[in-house]
Amino acid sequence: DEVKPTAEPIEQPKPVVTPDGNQGYEEFVPTEDNTEWLVNAKRNVFKDENYKEIKGYKFYFNDNKKLASYLGVDVSSHQGLIDWQKVAKTGVKFAMIRVGVRGHKTGKIQYDKYFKYNIENAKKYGLKVGVYFFTQAISTKEALEEANFVLSCIKEYDLDMPVVFDMEYVGSVTSRTKLANMTNEQRTDIVLTFLNSVKKAGYMPMFYANKNWLEQAVQLSKLNDYFIWYARYNNVPDYQYRYHIWQYTDKGSIPGINGNVDMNLSYLNY
Question: What Å distances lie between residue 166 and 52, 133, 135, 235, CA to CA?
Fold first, then answer.
């Protein structure tokens, strides 16, 4: 059944940065040996020494010292009303825009009230756009429901970049995903259900998670056929497995956006 968008306040916890600088709501504590799923996971091809910071923003250069990355932001209702004309003049090339979330307490799917404004205006001023959904699914049925919700919201737009499944640990005692006490295999099946549904609909699927989650909470080699958006707030990615976008800070500053914004590098020209 199609979930109807609403503009109610979104029930999503505020992110924190753990002591080691790893992005996340709280650190996921592994309960399984994940070694066999990391052995066959595809490896990172980027070199830490090829990252450079220019005027406060990170960029990646290839071995021939040519620019090999694209600067981007990801946004949601947290940023309020964005002046996309100003953003487009800064050198930002793409925007990942939140469609909505599933509440971590109620389990209700909620529409991001700025989604329509953000995607239409980002496109209007020439940015490449992709979208993401913050999941708190505890079953493949719910993952399919989330995929159908996202597909219903984006059907009238031409996307340049992936449709992303954003999976993060919420350690609150009332968090439905924590209470569900899922295995790594169950979480991976949820991810694959969403990604496969998006792919079947003709879009480019991608999975978002932080270092700790990718290495400890899912069976990573099962995701070898999909794009990865990797989150780690650090000077360099410090990650040995494959990724295609790096979210490197939540403290970015861009003209046209009030307050902090997440900054990203994409290594693919979508």
Answer: 27, 6, 6, 22
